[in-house]
Design goal:
Elements (H helix, E strand, L loop, with lengths): L6 H30 L1 H11 L20 H43 L9 H8 L2 H16 L23 H7 L5 H31 L4 H29 L12 H26 L8 H32 L2 H13 L6 H13 L8 H27 L8 H23 L11 H5 L6
Length: 445
């Protein structure tokens, strides 16, 4: 069964990408005017919102607690300059994580010998096809940071590890000896992006070969082994790039749960996109074997991962907030003080999925799941916004043209790449030994 990329959807995705670029460009131009008059702009904001710029929670965000007024103003100016980069970084990182997680979820099906999911396995494959593009998008941020084109990762400031500098930070000096060494960080980031991207054609070629050989069990065994390899690679890389890409934005803060917290966030987003695309293809008669039994199982993962994300968020927040260790509590103090909508994301990411998707009958309703898929994706965009923006831009956050443009533009690009990949795949994985089981699958109520 083949899907023909709808000209209407193709044009819409490309138009969204162009609109995103235009909005981002306009926002960037307007932002540069604020940067050109940064002293006046910052002083005006300080007078209007003093609590956003002064408080106990701010000390960890600054390079040093002992800097003078000039150093303080320099730091604020750097935060202001970070906004275009941060606006781009949030959707870029999320889309990269979604693609990597989609391939992870697909490999889990192969390794677990799952039967129910083979009807939608090519949808997972198509979503994973964005992985090389997502790697390029994140790579732009990585290279821009390494070559000091931005100040997203302020620990890259050489003065922080210079004992003769007023900015000297002994904590950062200790970390810079190994893990937060810029050169080592760059090497690690390149490894994550390249290795994960290279595994995509390995898995796709194996599934194609399985179809070509009509389900040869030797080929299936090879697919199994390659899937295991990707699971191991993803387990290591997803933990490490969560630390390097996001947690190191707040280098004084640490959470042992963070790697799981981040992974579940883009994993539930990936499953939501699987459900959205499967429903769309069903309506276009391109995925006729997909039925409410498969939808029910996909929605169970949307529901379950939403609860797992909420559990990890609560554990991370409550344990650190209750312990009240300064370098840990400040992470949340800053978000509470500068980001008043921080806790509201729980309504989208926990309350809505829990109340709406808890019923088995609701899990089988196409329209409900379709809408909830978009709600969950936006909720986790919001989550990454709250992870990245406070450290990157501090009090200068705003959901303006740059943020909207980056989200719409990358969303349009993601749609085009994924649906183009769908159109090039045989949507029926007839070579898979469990495809027949998936065709006749019924959820055992």
């Amino acid at each position: 069964m083949q899907y023909t990329f709808s000209p209407r959807l193709k044009n819409a995705s490309l138009i969204l990408a162009v609109i995103g670029v235009v909005l981002y460009g306009i926002g960037f131009f307007l932002h540069q005017q604020d940067v050109a008059n940064s002293t006046e702009y910052i002083n005006g904001l300080i007078e209007a919102h003093p609590t956003q710029f002064f408080g106990d929670y701010i000390s960890d965000s600054y390079a040093s607690m002992n800097t003078d007024h000039a150093g303080h103003m320099e730091h604020l100016t750097n935060l202001l300059k970070n906004r275009p980069w941060a606006a781009f970084y949030v959707p870029a990182y999320l889309s990269f994580g979604i693609a990597a997680s989609a391939l992870f979820f697909l490999c889990i099906q192969f390794v677990a010998n799952a039967g129910w999911s083979m009807v939608v396995s090519r949808v997972m494959e198509a979503i994973a096809s964005f992985l090389p593009v997502g790697s390029v998008l994140v790579g732009i941020i990585v290279l821009g940071s390494y070559f000091h084109m931005n100040h997203l990762f302020h620990w890259m400031d050489a003065d922080l590890i210079n004992p003769d500098s007023e900015k000297y930070d002994i904590f950062m000096a200790n970390k810079a000896q190994l893990w937060l060494s810029p050169n080592f960080w760059l090497v690690r980031c390149i490894i994550y992006l390249v290795v994960l991207s290279l595994m995509l054609p390995v898995i796709k070629n194996a599934t194609r070969k399985l179809d070509d050989t009509n389900g040869d069990l030797k080929v299936y065994a090879q697919l199994y082994k390659k899937s295991v390899i990707y699971l191991v690679i993803f387990a290591i890389c997803s933990a490490a790039f969560a630390w390097d890409f996001v947690m190191s934005l707040d280098p004084h803060w640490f959470s042992s749960l963070f790697m799981w917290y981040g992974m579940v966030s883009y994993l539930v987003s990936a499953v939501s996109i699987m459900a959205i695309i499967s429903i769309y293809l069903k309506r276009k008669n391109s995925l006729p074997l997909f039925n409410d039994n498969h939808l029910h199982d996909l929605t169970k993962y949307m529901f379950g991962f939403s609860l797992l994300w909420s559990y990890l968020w609560f554990c991370q927040f409550m344990l650190q907030w209750y312990a009240n260790i300064p370098e840990e509590a400040q992470y949340f103090q800053q978000r509470m003080a500068q980001y008043p909508l921080y806790f509201w994301m729980l309504i989208i990411n926990l309350v809505a999925p829990f109340l709406i998707l808890i019923s088995s009958s609701m899990k089988r309703r196409y329209q409900i799941v379709f809408v909830m898929g978009f709600v969950i994706i936006f909720g986790h965009y919001w989550d990454f916004y709250n992870q990245i923006m406070p450290a990157a831009v501090g009090p200068f956050h705003n959901f303006g043209l740059m943020e909207i443009g980056a989200l719409v533009g990358i969303g349009g690009l993601f749609t085009f790449v994924v649906m183009n990949a769908v159109s090039k795949l045989n949507l029926e994985a007839k070579g898979h030994p469990y495809f027949h089981e998936s065709k006749i699958y019924e959820y055992p109520f």
